[in-house]
């Protein structure tokens, strides 16, 4: 059994090289400022760290698994470049507060990157809604046709979901925005360090207030994985509707062939594999969140090696969400509406049942009584294979004398336009929501 590399994390935590080097440079600047080491020594170390960064980015760095992690690989190479003075870099810090700082810098940066990707998708959804502002569509509850809506209203519902995701990732960034460097292994340090200086150098807005909590806290990783899982669930819901709408039974949408694949056996089929994989990969991010929560639930203070397991889950959630956002954005931009099929579906007269009940209410009937009347009308129409569109005034009046000629003015469009309340599906309200969305999207990501 190979046990030598069991504790090694370099295979995945080398991804943190930028953050680790930035943290080390800030730390060594502070050591020089506080006269804990000399300015000459600090400059030597900083020069060496910059050389290492160049080597990593040019793929010439020699990663050594026996050195376990990103921190020791960089420190080992620093000794090779600048000699014994490299040993002064780690003065007043531990790998415990070092890795915490690296991870916080990483989560801050990636939270903003994800927000940018979400906003890119939102722009595509708004464009799709605006370009199809007047397309009428059946709205569904329980996957049964319910009431007429605008297709644009449906798309803007996803805009709202993703807006909440933007908020979550900005909150995640805010909670990660705490500098823990200077907490040491768990109890702080005996050196006269300047933690505020380091925080400012690294772009943190504040420093941690308890060294024990600082080195063991991974709540910000929970936050990121939770935000990623929620966003992936929203993507999964959109993917599910794309899958349903592209089926022959619905035939509302047609995907770009780039986002479908053929069957190995059935030549007539084009499967929405990209949408299915987007739906399926939500399970990965949910699993990563559960793993992080389970990892932390029984850990005593302070640092425990179990925390090495947090990175792969974080990285996987990030990579899964980032790639899926790009795929979904491409899919939204490439799909086409089958307007004839959508229009035909929106003309289903049973979609107007609620409007007919409201019609009776406006004529003086209590809603519950009006509701029962419409139930009987629908039963009658189904029993006699007669659509509401085929009803005569006499047919209506057999159920209530309140019906008059104006009942025939109720259409899918009149139903939609009558719902002219904030958040409603009328053209005016949806146009307003699109205008507000554009203003939101123009704001700076930060």
How would you describe what is shown here?
- This protein has helices at residues 10-13, 17-33, 39-57, 70-82, 95-131, 151-176, 195-202, 211-216, 219-245, 273-280, 282-296, 310-334, 339-346, 353-362, 367-383, 393-397, 412-418, 427-442; strands at residues 136-141, 144-150, 253-254, 261-262, 270-271, 336-337.
- The mean pLDDT is 95.
- The chain has three domains: 11-91, Fumarase/aspartase (N-terminal domain) (Fumarase C, Chain B, domain 1); 96-344, Up-down Bundle (Fumarase C, Chain A, domain 2), CATH 1.20.200.10; 348-424, Fumarase/aspartase (C-terminal domain) (Ribonucleotide Reductase Protein R1, domain 1), CATH 1.10.40.
- It is mostly helical.
- Strands 1-2 form a two-stranded antiparallel ribbon. Strands 3-6 form a two-stranded antiparallel sheet.
- The longest helix has 37 residues, at 95-131.
- It is elongated.
Give the helices and strands, then pairings.
Elements: H1 10-13, H2 17-33, H3 39-57, H4 70-82, H5 95-131, E1 136-141, E2 144-150, H6 151-176, H7 195-202, H8 211-216, H9 219-245, E3 253-254, E4 261-262, E5 270-271, H10 273-280, H11 282-296, H12 310-334, E6 336-337, H13 339-346, H14 353-362, H15 367-383, H16 393-397, H17 412-418, H18 427-442
Helix pairs in contact: 2-3, 2-5, 2-7, 3-4, 5-6, 5-12, 5-18, 6-9, 6-18, 9-10, 9-11, 9-12, 11-12, 14-15
